[in-house]
User: Which sequence fits this backbone?
């Protein structure tokens, strides 16, 4: 059976290190500050924002929450972002997506200062990633790379197949893998012979949002499987994008769902916020 990649344990290790870093910063009069903006009442977003608040509190990071009604205008949201951009107590700004339909998400994300874009979504930060000189990297892909490093995976010369081409996971993780000298294939809904593509992979990263779309018998013996998907099936059951039980029979290592990639996302958000505080204060 495959090694189970324990995202909770890896995240806990990093958060403990961050807590110590925050303590050292506090001795210099610096408290890393993260502003989280939630517009509307999306249930999943509310849960996620609550998790971020608790994680900040545990690490000693100042959390500045702005919970706005769904009818908030785009102009008012942009004005708030401008205020946060200029607030020296705030080192990171995160606007929780999705936003209400009357607000242009792209315009809002571009309004965040690249120096405080701890989500790594601003075109400036994406561009730096493309040219191999990243500043803030998107949290979920960054977390995946940390997990691979933690279990001793060297990507040099490896075949990486990514299922999913989103701006949030698929594209940035492809760029990060390229920087580590992997050969990368991005698959998507129009890809032909998907099973054959996956079977060629030394590392499979599934981030397509379809329950168990990647079948277990597609996994090459000894491959590493990173499952980003979190899909609710029925009342309570959560499954990933990979057929876990069968895939685990072939893989050398695999992330569970839940407890795999998920804990790493918020952890890397905290990491980026602390790094931003260090940069702002020239430390």
Assistant:
């Amino acid at each position: 059976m495959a090694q189970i990649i324990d995202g909770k344990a890896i995240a806990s290790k990093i958060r403990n290190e961050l807590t110590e870093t925050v303590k050292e910063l506090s001795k210099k009069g610096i408290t890393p500050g993260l502003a989280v903006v939630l517009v509307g009442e999306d249930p999943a977003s509310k849960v996620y924002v609550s998790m971020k608040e608790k994680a900040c509190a545990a690490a000693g990071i100042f959390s500045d929450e702005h919970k706005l009604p769904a009818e908030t205008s785009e102009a008012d949201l942009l004005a708030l972002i401008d205020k946060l951009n200029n607030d020296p107590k705030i080192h990171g700004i995160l606007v929780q997506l999705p936003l209400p339909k009357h607000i242009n998400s792209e315009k809002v994300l571009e309004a965040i200062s690249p120096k405080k874009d701890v989500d790594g979504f601003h075109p400036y930060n994406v561009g730096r990633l493309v040219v191999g000189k990243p500043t803030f990297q998107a949290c979920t892909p960054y977390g995946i790379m940390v997990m691979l490093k933690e279990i001793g995976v060297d990507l040099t010369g490896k075949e990486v197949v990514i299922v999913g081409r989103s701006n949030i996971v698929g594209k940035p993780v492809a760029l990060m893998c390229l920087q580590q000298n992997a050969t990368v294939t991005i698959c998507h809904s129009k890809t032909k012979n998907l099973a054959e593509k996956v079977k060629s992979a030394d590392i499979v990263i599934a981030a397509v949002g379809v329950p168990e779309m990647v079948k277990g018998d597609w996994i090459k013996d000894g491959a590493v499987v990173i499952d980003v998907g979190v899909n609710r099936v029925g009342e309570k059951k959560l499954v990933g994008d990979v057929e876990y039980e069968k895939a685990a029979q072939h893989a050398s290592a695999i992330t569970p769902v839940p407890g795999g990639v998920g804990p790493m996302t918020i952890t890397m958000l905290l990491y980026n916020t602390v790094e931003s505080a260090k940069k702002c204060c020239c430390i």
In short: The longest helix spans residues 7-27. The chain has a mean pLDDT of 95. Residues 3 and 253 are 4 Å apart (CA to CA). The longest strand covers residues 33-39.
